[in-house]
Specification:
The protein has about 300 residues and is mainly alpha-helical. Helices cover about 80% and strands about 0% of the residues.
């Protein structure tokens, strides 16, 4: 009986240990100093580009039906939990309703062009190191690629809002009245999550300055998209404690710190997905001196 129990324990524990070992290289990768530098740089750039990006998105939404802007409101409150989302939405709408908004809109577009490079430049360097690319793009080429990705991602945001609005109108026509309060969020999730995964796929595929195999990117984009969705719920669960702590320590800067922390955690997930893809790519990518340091 003792031998049988040992055999059963081996059958159960060994696969678990094997699965755990698969993540050891990723954990060690995330513990490297330069990965923290990349994540912090990306998070700081997200903070700088957030308001210009949202200003442009809301300005574009005004060319469509009002339900598109309502869908963007749902998206904003979904991405940023609790009081943070309410704070961003309140200040954003106040700026959009100013009489001189048309002039500020052009400033937002220029700022978006400048700060987009800050988001994608460290991300490109990190992806190039992961894939063993010998050379990074020049500043000008990176700026062009970054702005192209911003346009693609912005188009996906507007597309998800439009899909949400269309689905909401369709549901209203079927039930013949007001829809339940939870329905807009559900409809947004159905439209936004696949488009988020598509945006991740495009970033993983287009941003590295080398050829990247497509097949493993599909799987990792789905996994990273799901992990980012889980991160939002973890942040929402920790929000009461986190908000109280940050308000106590940072006072008026607490919301900025919250955006930084959330963006940094999301950056770690995206970079972990890139590292995992490189290790599981078939055939393996040959590393050069510009690749990852030995783990």
């Amino acid at each position: 009986m003792h031998i049988i129990n040992e055999h059963l324990e081996t059958q159960v524990i060994d696969p678990l240990l094997e699965r755990t070992r698969r993540w050891h290289p990723t954990v060690r990768y995330l513990s490297q100093t330069e990965v923290h530098v990349y994540a912090l740089s990306i998070a700081a750039s997200v903070l700088l580009s957030l308001y210009p990006f949202l200003t442009v998105m809301y300005s574009l939404a005004r060319f469509f039906d009002s339900s598109v802007q309502q869908a963007l409101n749902v998206a904003l409150l979904d991405y940023f939990p609790g009081e943070l989302g309410v704070f961003i939405q309140r200040n954003l709408l106040a700026n959009l309703n100013k009489p001189a908004h048309s002039r500020f809109q052009m400033v937002s577009i220029v700022l978006l062009m400048l700060t987009a490079n800050g988001v994608f430049e460290p991300l490109e360097v990190a992806l190039n190191r992961a894939w063993g690319a010998v050379k990074n793009r020049s500043y000008l080429r990176n700026q062009v690629m970054s702005f192209g990705l911003i346009i693609l991602c912005g188009g996906l945001v507007i597309g998800s809002a439009m899909l949400t609005a269309v689905n909401e109108e369709f549901v209203k026509s079927k039930i013949g009245g007001d829809i339940p309060h939870w329905m807009p969020l559900l409809l947004f999730k159905l439209a936004a999550i696949p488009l988020t995964m598509l945006a991740l796929f495009l970033t993983y595929w287009l941003l590295p300055n080398c050829r990247v195999p497509v097949r493993p990117l599909v799987r990792v984009s789905i996994a990273v998209g799901g992990a980012l969705e889980i991160l939002k719920y973890v942040a929402l669960a920790a929000w009461p404690w986190l908000n109280s702590k940050l308000v106590n320590e940072y006072d008026v800067f607490s919301h900025s710190v919250e955006v930084l922390l959330f963006s940094m955690m999301a950056s770690f997930i995206v970079l972990a997905g890139a590292e995992w893809t490189v290790r599981h790519a078939q055939p393996p990518v040959a590393k050069s001196s510009a690749g990852l340091r030995p783990l």
